[in-house]
């Protein structure tokens, strides 16, 4: 990743996207906020000496080091090269995986893991749209069934189950 | 030779039918895990760890460490055939491995890589066999202050020897410590940093964090690059294997050099990546035709693979002898020991002889089994990479979710995994290293305990960390390692002052 050739490429094509500096700065600010939160909590419970170190003693000291490191990162981040960090196209790709994943996790509670997994596969594969509908359907049925066989029947690890499994007597 | 007879007993344990079965299953699973994107060594072990809770600890660790060996072998397949390094330490393997595959010499490259891995791992195991008991018996004298000094040494060497931005390594370590502190405090019994949430009372389980940081984030990164992999074909037959093996003795100097570098760097935490690059660099420097490197020189495959695997295996030495893991996967295995009710550290060699020597014996056998299996089944595993990613990705993510859930039967943990997946994605893009975070999370509680006990003993005076020769040496060494990197950077900067632009570009 040599800087010279990269910047030439980006001049000729100019891919649109998030640049690196704002992302670096935001992350550093979040880390600083986290550090302050830790210090607030630790000193709130006592980070001093009371016949021995109090329970906030260690986290508070780590918190100070953390705060110093994050401040240093913040200062550094203003000097980072401001190249394109992620193109919007790439972000779109990531969202196409992440959105169905969030849906999947949200459905685990009401529907059980197996049904949610089936729905996740259908949604994900339809969005990516590289497979035929019967291949999608087959995968959506077979993968949860295989998981059920491995985890529920072989390893006897109970996974979250919903109304469908109750209907089938599990 | 007391240790020798212990090792023989270990072989008896490891050679029982069901343990050999677990070894084979582990290696095969490990290769799959190493080949698939989003399922590296640490993540694969983390997902399977909950399934072993009910197993006998010796069988469980044989299964899980075999996954580790398999993942190490699997990483070489993707590096050579697909030019995708499965793990960071396989990066140097792609320099010459992929050009060899392009020239139609994929089978030679793979054979060389696997054999080199085996030689590297074997030298690491031999090191463990002879040195680990000595270190452990030496460490029996350690008190809390000494233990904290060793922890300090670990973390300082991460910062000093790391290749990433040092402030980011430090921040990553601190996050690990702070996450470890969340929840019930084991000494005072108080709740810390839960902010009234009942879900946070249990604290952050490192397995959930590992699955999110290494698994989910890896999938997100892979997707960013597009959804198709283009790879080279490879079929290994016995003739190629034998021919490649016949050529290996010529490279004994390279192999020996890499093995030594690997063993040395492996004991230092985070050393495997540096070791693979060092092995590659040394081989190139000592070669008669340094120009042929990067264009498909077989030495360019042998050197980094030997070094990386010697380092990856030696990383288990401090884990076994001191209870301090040298790599992210070793950290996960260490977490496993705690779960199975074994206290990692020097006492393990005294109290759990059968377990320790069974594990060490299984390292010899597991690597041998790995070599045979991987040579026989490369085409099969290369075929896995040709399954369209739209099938593979959801299955991996579902398995990750199941892994996160089964740790403590909590749906909240799946959400946490998702959150850490996003964090891992951003951190990887911004070059925050993740291994220090995991290490600090696993060791956080124990480092804190030894720190507090040491201070309790001394009445709060920091002088306890300079009280005797041993602890002073350890702390001094830690500070030396911490400052080593910055000092070397300074020296390098002075030397390069003439061409600052070129130096920047090289980094």
TrEMBL record, chain A:
Keywords: Membrane, Transmembrane, Transmembrane helix. The chain crosses the membrane at residues 21-40, 60-78, 98-127, 133-151. Pfam families: TctB. Residues 28-160 form the DUF1468 domain. It comes from the Bacteria. InterPro entries: DUF1468. This is Tripartite tricarboxylate transporter TctB family protein. It comes from Bosea psychrotolerans.
TrEMBL record, chain B:
It comes from Bosea psychrotolerans. Keywords: Membrane, Transmembrane, Transmembrane helix. Residues 22-439 form the DUF112 domain. InterPro entries: DUF112_TM. This is TctA family transporter. It comes from the Bacteria. The chain crosses the membrane at residues 20-39, 60-82, 118-140, 147-163, 169-191, 203-223, 259-283, 319-343, 355-382, 389-408, 414-443, 464-484.
């Amino acid at each position: 990743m040599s800087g010279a050739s990269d910047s030439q490429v980006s001049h000729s094509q100019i891919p649109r996207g998030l640049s690196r500096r704002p992302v670096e700065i935001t992350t550093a600010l979040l880390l600083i906020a986290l550090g302050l939160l830790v210090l607030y909590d630790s000193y709130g419970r006592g980070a001093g000496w009371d016949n021995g170190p109090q329970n906030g003693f260690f986290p508070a000291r780590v918190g100070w080091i953390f705060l110093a490191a994050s401040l240093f990162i913040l200062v550094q981040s203003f000097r980072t090269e401001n190249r394109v960090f992620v193109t919007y196209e790439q972000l779109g790709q990531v969202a196409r995986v992440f959105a169905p994943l969030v849906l999947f996790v949200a459905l685990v509670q009401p529907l059980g893991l197996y049904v949610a997994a089936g729905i996740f596969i259908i949604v994900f594969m339809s969005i990516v749209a590289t497979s035929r509908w019967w291949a999608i359907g087959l995968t959506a049925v077979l993968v949860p069934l295989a998981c059920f066989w491995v985890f529920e029947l072989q390893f006897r690890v109970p996974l979250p189950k919903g109304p469908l499994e109750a209907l089938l007597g599990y | 030779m007391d240790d020798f007879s212990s090792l023989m007993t270990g072989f008896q344990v490891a050679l029982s039918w069901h343990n050999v079965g677990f070894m084979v299953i582990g290696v095969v699973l490990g290769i799959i895990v190493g080949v698939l994107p989003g399922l590296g060594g640490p993540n694969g072990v983390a997902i399977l760890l909950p399934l072993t809770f009910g197993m006998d600890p010796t069988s469980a660790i044989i299964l899980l460490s075999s996954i580790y060996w398999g993942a190490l072998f699997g990483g070489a397949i993707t590096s050579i055939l697909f030019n995708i390094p499965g793990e960071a330490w396989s990066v140097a393997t792609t320099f010459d491995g992929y050009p060899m595959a392009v020239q139609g010499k994929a089978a030679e490259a793979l054979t060389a890589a696997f054999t080199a891995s085996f030689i590297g791992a074997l030298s690491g195991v031999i090191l463990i066999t002879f040195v680990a008991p000595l270190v452990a018996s030496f460490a029996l004298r350690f008190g809390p202050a000494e233990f904290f000094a060793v922890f300090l040494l670990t973390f300082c060497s991460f910062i000093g020897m790391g290749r990433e931005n040092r402030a980011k390594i430090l921040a990553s370590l601190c996050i690990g410590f702070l996450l470890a502190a969340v929840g019930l405090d084991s000494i005072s019994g108080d709740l810390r940093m839960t902010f009234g949430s009942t879900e946070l009372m249990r604290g952050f389980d490192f397995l959930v964090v590992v699955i999110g940081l290494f698994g989910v984030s890896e999938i997100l990164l892979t997707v960013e690059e597009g959804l198709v992999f283009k790879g080279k074909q490879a079929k290994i037959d016995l003739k190629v294997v034998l021919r490649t093996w016949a050529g290996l003795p010529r490279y004994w100097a390279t192999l020996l050099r890499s093995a030594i570098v690997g063993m040395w760097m492996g004991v230092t935490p985070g050393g495997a990546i540096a070791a693979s690059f060092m092995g590659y660099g040394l081989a190139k420097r000592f070669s008669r035709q340094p120009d042929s490197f990067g264009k498909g020189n077989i030495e360019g495959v042998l050197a980094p693979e030997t070094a990386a695997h010697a380092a990856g295996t030696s990383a288990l030495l401090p884990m076994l002898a001191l209870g301090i893991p040298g790599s992210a996967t070793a950290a996960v295995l260490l977490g496993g020991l705690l779960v199975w009710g074994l206290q990692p550290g020097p006492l393990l060699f005294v109290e759990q002889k059968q377990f320790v020597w069974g594990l060490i014996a299984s390292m010899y056998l597991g690597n041998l089994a790995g070599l045979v299996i991987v040579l026989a089944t490369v085409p099969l595993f290369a075929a896995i990479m040709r399954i369209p990613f739209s099938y593979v990705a959801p299955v991996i993510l579902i398995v990750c979710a199941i892994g996160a859930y089964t740790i403590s039967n909590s749906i909240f943990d799946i959400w946490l995994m998702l959150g850490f997946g996003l964090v891992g994605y951003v951190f990887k893009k911004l070059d925050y290293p993740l291994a220090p975070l995991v290490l600090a999370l696993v060791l956080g509680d124990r480092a804190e305990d030894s720190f507090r006990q040491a201070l309790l003993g001394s009445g709060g005076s920091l002088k306890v960390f300079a009280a005797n020769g041993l602890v002073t040496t350890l702390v001094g060494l830690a500070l030396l390692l911490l400052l080593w990197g910055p000092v070397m950077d300074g020296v390098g900067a002075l030397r390069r002052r003439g061409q600052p632009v070129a130096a920047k570009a090289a980094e």
